């Protein structure tokens, strides 16, 4: 169940007897590596206590829309943005009706309105309520809007009836949830992804570098692996863990990053350069620590580093090559210049003058530029953006074949 590792799941619980299974569901989701935040409707708390779910999820349980204290800690918009996926289990007939009507009359439905994450429901209700034409119409409308329904199953029900409407078992729901993260759009493809900063040594203890945390590149590597690709992640020094199912190659300098990028390049289908590579390095690395002298000004001589992504784009055979452009002004113009100059197929521009996106933040906002199109992807978590970017890159790559 690797696909759930580090996934941020909002588990919504609505009122129904199957809510007792949500405790086991929370435990299994956590066990599969997901970070789970439980959101309960008022009627769900009649069936199972928030305390149980708090203990099992390891996070506070969210219940009220108009609770200033809870909103200050993590408000409904933050929760909506935080989620990689919203899973509602059990989803009652009433909850499905409210979602269909686009209502935001409690915390859970409001989060569903505010999120851009996929929403999945595990319906649970009496068989007659499930068969009711109103519920069936609601189910169809929800599906047509892209909401996924897991089940319901058929069998004996808590009320003594037998038929469709049983909530799937927690194990089945966890499996279905994990499947949502597997797109298959890059199955059989090999991707090389550069990430993080480079360090250009001056002496044994000092270097020139930048603020890249690697979060953007690592999120892209994770999304690519989830899309079925075989991923080589070439990373400068960062403090985050490599995503599962990726091959991590650790490097320090731009020159090391270049040789790792060129090794096996003939097998690479798509190359994505998310690393913040130092444009220059000291002309020489002192053998011993440079001592402080008496002079007020110290001169440091720099020499240009090789341009990794341009070298890759100029190779033969050339992989589909995607660069990033980190700019602080005139973002789109500079990015278009880099697309041309470096011979790229696609460039992803981001504004690194802002502290809420770009370097070292958990969110980003980008513009994807090709020869033909310009597409803006609004501010979202780097992990969500990475998912969209990978799907977009996969589609563009396929269009060139
Ligand atoms: O790591 P994070 O904290 O998550 O931050 C993400 C990010 C801001 C680093 C990322 O989104 C980003 O913009 N990466 C590219 C940063 C950069 O170096 O941009 P640039 O405009 O200077 O370079 C343009 C492209 O050429 C980039 O794809 C870069 O990887 C590549 N390049 C640059 C210089 C060089 N010598 N070799 C290169 O391959």
Structural features, described:
The protein folds into two domains: 2-178, Flavin prenyltransferase-like (Rossmann fold, 3-Layer(aba) Sandwich), CATH 3.40.50.1950; 190-288 and 295-399, CoaB-like (Rossmann fold, 3-Layer(aba) Sandwich), CATH 3.40.50.10300. The protein is 33% helix and 24% strand. The protein has 14 helices and 19 strands. It has an eight-stranded mixed sheet, with helices on both faces. Strands 2-1-3-4-5 form a five-stranded parallel sheet, with helices on both faces. Helix 4 (76-82) packs across helix 6. The radius of gyration is 25 Å and the shape is elongated. The mean pLDDT is 95.
How would you summarize what this structure contains?
It contains 14 helices and 19 strands. By secondary structure, the protein is an alpha/beta fold. It folds into two domains: 2-178, 3-Layer(aba) Sandwich (Rossmann fold); 190-288 and 295-399, CoaB-like (Rossmann fold), CATH 3.40.50.
